[in-house]
């Protein structure tokens, strides 16, 4: 595989759960009212969903106006009202994106600001509302692959899954925009305002809203925790493998890759926007001329691998309406919405990413392992890292390096954020530890390098996905579903320890004794990473 092709493949995988097969197209108006097509009257007009026995679904509901034409790179505007009953029996279009893996051009539509509601049957009222933000590194993904019937039926929750703008359409910046307005996060805020206005119509309690999301979805929730514009829109949060401090050291997967940080100064994004406009022939003088030129470009011209990745980072800075401050620093200073939080990690986060590079860049022996540590962390760190992660303690040197990257990039940053928030609000922490979790991604595993409990592999334990669970895994799924929905209902998952010093983390794995408390910072050598890689 060429380095360029691998960069594109890895970038799409980074922070992403690889998606299921593509969903259906946008909703359309419809008539008729069979008994299995329940109708709910939203604040923009009535929608007809589908009944599935113990639960109901309403898909493809617009929560904002299509951000097309002159509304491209504008904050989300209210959806138009409609007359008659709108069909909500199929998902709306996914936002413009490239394939998560492999070749292919862009798919989806700019007309994509739709959400999906799953609610128990029959109606009822006052149920907790759970709003799901999908992963995908801010370049892939959609709400509809996440089928939430278990959360709705077993947990008696109303679950909302959301599309939001991606890549250059969602995180572009330019001086003519006044900066980098973080349209993707603003879309999520618009969806939360929709929830506040409409949750009760689906049996939910608009005053009891929990955000939950994985990977980029967790990063989005980090933004909401620290965004003044998200105040009052939610009361609890679950971050799964995506914390405010998530990072990745340079050259960890490829010799040419720099350090990854998902939150960047706004000026950096604006400078990239100026460069992009010039490259597209839109560096025109006069107020609004550059933006008018860019808005005139076809979506396929903008949705290239280079541009989608260039604008996949969330911007912060003075004057930024969404994020005036770097989120991790806001947490450290106590400047965040002090709601109950669950901070989640997976035991083998980085294995799925590292596996994609091992053919081209193998870690065959202890010398190659030492060289990789040195390239990513510096020569002065090698002895300390090898002392905590000796290659001989792992089945292969590659699995040793995966453990290093998992702890340094995901696990210890998340636990560090948990400690910061625990000074001001209730925090609970879990570690998904099922090393036999089914791989539903479709990616081939490298011999001798199992994915284990890798990034995203907890999702079939919460959502109905294309993954077969064993009996003990189904029992774990039931426990996780119960705990997630109990947290949504009360703000406390039952029998979980509060996360504080020394850092108790609930380890989640199937089988007898699989659920138990561990000292997360100690098991993952966080003293080393907090000191050397803050």
Spell out the blueprint of helices and strands.
Layout: H1 3-13, E1 39-42, E2 45-48, E3 50-51, E4 55-62, E5 86-87, E6 114-120, E7 127-133, H2 149-153, E8 158-162, H3 167-171, H4 183-198, E9 204-214, H5 216-226, E10 236-240, E11 263-265, H6 266-279, H7 289-295, H8 299-302, H9 305-310, E12 314-316, H10 327-332, E13 341-346, H11 351-355, H12 366-377, H13 382-388, H14 397-422, E14 427-432, H15 471-490, E15 504-508, E16 516-519, H16 520-523, H17 526-532
Parallel strand pairs: 2-5, 7-8, 7-9, 9-10, 10-13, 11-12, 13-14, 14-15
Antiparallel strand pairs: 1-2, 3-4, 4-6, 6-8, 15-16
Helix pairs in contact: 12-14
Q: Helix coverage percent of residues? A: 25-40%
Main β-sheet: number of strands, strand sense, barrel status? 11 strands, mixed
Rounded average pLDDT: 92
Number of helices: 17
How many distinct beta strands? 16
Termini Cα gap: 33 Å
Radius of gyration: 22 Å
Beta-strand content estimate: 15-25%
> Would you tell me the structural class of the helices and strands?
alpha/beta
Unreliable stretches, pLDDT < 50, 5 or more residues? 1-34
Strand order in space, largest sheet: 3-4-6-8-7-9-10-13-14-15-16
- Shape annotation: globular
For the structure shown, list the relevant keywords:
534 residues, 16 strands, disordered N terminus, 31% helix, 3-stranded mixed β-sheet, single chain, alpha/beta
Protein model, in words:
The protein has 534 residues and is an alpha/beta fold. 31% of the residues lie in helices and 15% in strands. The chain has helices spanning 3-13, 149-153, 167-171, 183-198, 216-226, 266-279, 289-295, 299-302, 305-310, 327-332, 351-355, 366-377, 382-388, 397-422, 471-490, 520-523, 526-532; strands at residues 39-42, 45-48, 50-51, 55-62, 86-87, 114-120, 127-133, 158-162, 204-214, 236-240, 263-265, 314-316, 341-346, 427-432, 504-508, 516-519. The protein has an 11-stranded mixed beta sheet with strand order 3-4-6-8-7-9-10-13-14-15-16, sandwiched between helices. Strands 1-2-5 form a 3-stranded mixed beta sheet, with no helix packed on it. The longest helix is centred in the C-terminal third of the chain and has 26 residues, at 397-422. The chain is globular.
